[in-house]
Amino acid sequence: MNRKRAPATWPFVLALIVAFALDGLSWTPRATAVEPRAEQAASPAANSRPAASARQRIYVQAHQATKPHDWDEANFWDEPTALLDEIDNLASDCETGLWAAQVGDLVRELCRQQDWQSPRTALILKQLRDLVDANHPLLASPLDSPYAGNLRRMRYAVLRRIDLWELVPELAATRRGGGRGQMVSLSNGPLREAEAPANITRLLSDLERFEQTGLTDDGRDIVSDVSRLLARDETLAARTHRWLDWNYRNSNLRVVCSQQLMNRLVPTPPAVEAPVHDRILGIPTRGWSTSTAQLSIHMIPDPRTVRFTIEAKGFVLARTASRRDPVTVYSNSDSAYLARKQVQLTDEGLKTWPAEVEVSNNSRLRGIETDFDDIPLIGALVESIARHKHAESEPAVRRVARRKVASRVEEEVEAAIEPKLARLRQQYRERVVSPLEGLSLAASIIEMQTTDARLTSRLRLAADEQLAASTPRPMALAGSLASLQMHQSLANNICDRVDLDGHTFTLPGLQQRLVKAFRLAPEVLSEEYPSDLLIQFAPRDALTVRFEAGHIELTLGVAELRKPPKVWRDFQVRVCYRPQVHGLDVRFVRDGTVQLRGEHFGRDPQIALRGIFSKVFSHDRELVLVNHSILADPRLTGLAVTQCVLSDGWIGISLGVAQTTNQALRRVGPLY
């Protein structure tokens, strides 16, 4: 499936990931502002990647030992253990038991098939697809049913596998010489006849391991397996990549914003009084004008882009005096205008159109004054002639006035909007695009659309060799004004590109690496830390993040931690954070104790390590998602975060009207 590359993604991403990637080094202390300090440079020795130690080689070899490399006709594919365990759990429920039992029996029978091109194999796949069809009576149950979430999660777990299982007969056909094209490898040319089935076996095995671990490195193995299976048949190759993109490289960031919220946020310009110095039809005109304006946002339905107009509606009230000897004419004029400036966001960036202005006006004659008013008869005659001339010229005067008001409004709209958009582009470049370029990450547009009530953007942040979302996202609450769903793959992809795996750092050296990776200003990470502590990260998945069961779980893999004279080796640090929501304020606080896992240290080393990491991941350090200036914005009065859920690898946040009860429902909705 072809995806469009976007320049970057949303600033929220970096706010979340940088906080976690800092390993607790620069999180905002509770009720304390962060003050910039000077950065400490790291020594080259601390940042260099060492040669693989014996311990690391054993770790990698043990990890790779689970991968099948030989073709076995009788054991083409092992049972998907994780999937079957979940199916068996559903089978024990009286409401879902029959459906789950049928699915489980078919999956197990499928795994026993030795001929993937047999009619029985095709029938099993068809029966499985019928069972997980969205129109199945059980799967079409209401969203608020107690088992709807589990059923939808299971449905997608089976669907993403079926899409691959249906491709296996064609991918494996090369072994029998009946394929439509020869298997090729991106790096090694044509595959030998016996290699293609072995590569399929490896793909199926790697897929199930990723389903169990969700680790970035395991996902990279799947991408590598698919690359080896590229076929000369372009159609089959496209279908294989479409399976990968659709099921395991889907959008990992979705942002929705309603027209109602955008209109809350637009400013209300104050009334402006200004002197009038003009010439209309060659006649000098002086006086004062009062201008008022009301800004609003209106969505333009578009199935492929984000498109809306900024509208300015207002009035210009003028009291003027026009002088042509020997007559002075006093007038009141009322002009109503409507200005529209269209804005469109596409994969190529932000595009704007020139403002369009419509004006209607009305003028009233307040009076006429002549130099002959004190002379009987002549004064009345001159005034009569002046009134007649004024009536004749009034249509032309209105046309000129409309043109002048339109020109003035257009200039003011452009002057008010374009500089702000230019400043926004610059900030976007500095805060989002540049850090992502430093990480060699690509943001691809999966979907952008605009309806008459809201705009939606679905993005994928991943390098070519990384996976993205693969599970159904939480549904935003109905009636929410804005919502955001982010998959843990986005956080893990960024952590992976920081390239901590196998590296050794001092704490100042780690700061230096983060500044360089994210292209940050040195003062951003300015806290001072002792340089005598040396940390060597694990060779794979050194830093991982999980969104699960209402918590954020941060796992740090450490190969060696050295703080003279003590040394600790081969352990993991796990810390959980739970959300706290108060109105618009969303923050994550540490939940429970710091967990240590390792086989090579006893109780006393655990106590010492726990003391070190309890300070790093202190209870007093919280991850605050919403800036204090936003919390104090009067335009957001009456709004609150109505949903904050963490489930199935997703964090879902909804913004809506504040309510008396907590409605943070955990609902699972469609992924696509």
Defining key terms:
single chain; 672 residues; alpha+beta; nine-stranded antiparallel sheet; seven-stranded antiparallel sheet; 17 helices; disordered C terminus
- Output mean pLDDT: 79
Strand residue content? 25-35%
- List low-pLDDT spans: 4-74, 175-194, 661-672
What is the makeup of the main sheet? 9 strands, antiparallel
Helix count, DSSP H or I runs of 4 or more residues: 17
Our Rg estimate from Cα atoms comes to: 33 Å
The portion of residues assigned to helices is 25-40%
N-to-C CA distance = 14 Å
Please give the number of β-strands.
24
The secondary structure category is alpha+beta
Characterize the overall form: elongated
Could you describe the 3D structure shown?
- With 672 residues, the protein is of the alpha+beta class.
- Strands 2, 15, 16, 17, 18, 19, 20, 21 and 22 form a nine-stranded antiparallel β-sheet that branches. A seven-stranded antiparallel β-sheet has the order 1-12-13-5-14-24-23.
- β3 and β4 (189-190) form a beta hairpin.
- α9 packs antiparallel against α10 (216-228).
- The longest helix has 61 residues, at 378-438.
- The chain starts with a strand and ends in a 15-residue tail after the last strand.
- The model is unreliable at 4-74, 175-194 and 661-672 (pLDDT under 50).
